[in-house]
Amino acid sequence: MAAYAQEKPVATGVPVEVPMVPWSTGLCGCFDDCSNCCLTCWCPCITFGQTSEIIDRGTSSCGTNGALYALIGFLTGCSWIYSCTYRTKFRRTYNLEGSDCTDCLTHFCCTSCALCQEYRELKNKGFDVPLGWQGNMERGTGDVVTAPPPAFGAMNR
């Protein structure tokens, strides 16, 4: 049974189901990028700040999101709640497999692995994550989603 994203309207007004795509790397694929894995293990607020700035398309800053993540973690120990909301936003933006529930479970059980996977996914989409949103736009890098994913299915009149 294949997973599908929400129905998307097409020009004819008939909704078409768009298949979800798998993540480009697994949750435990940290061996592909040991430097980011170590940074995330010791200071996850940096990785979260970098990825969240790109997920927000520059409407928030790396420093602000990273500091808020660290503050929530320091005060409550539950920074995973904040980061799981960004995973959901990220997954929906790129039509990646998963659900809201798995996003929360992933961040609750292994926040570091989830943050590293999101970082790798952005990297595999062409972003130079440490540059942030503006730096990537100036360089013209990154797989910028400006329109909905293509609809698959028969053409209807």
UniProtKB/TrEMBL annotation:
Entry keyword set: Membrane, Transmembrane, Transmembrane helix
PANTHER family documented for this protein: DUF614 FAMILY PROTEIN-RELATED
Transmembrane segments: 66-84
Native organism: Papaver nudicaule (Iceland poppy)
Pfam families documented for this protein: PLAC8
Transmembrane helix found in the keyword field: yes
Listed InterPro entries: PLAC_motif_containing
Name listed for the protein in its UniProt record: Uncharacterized protein
Keyword Transmembrane tagged: yes
Superkingdom in the source lineage: Eukaryota
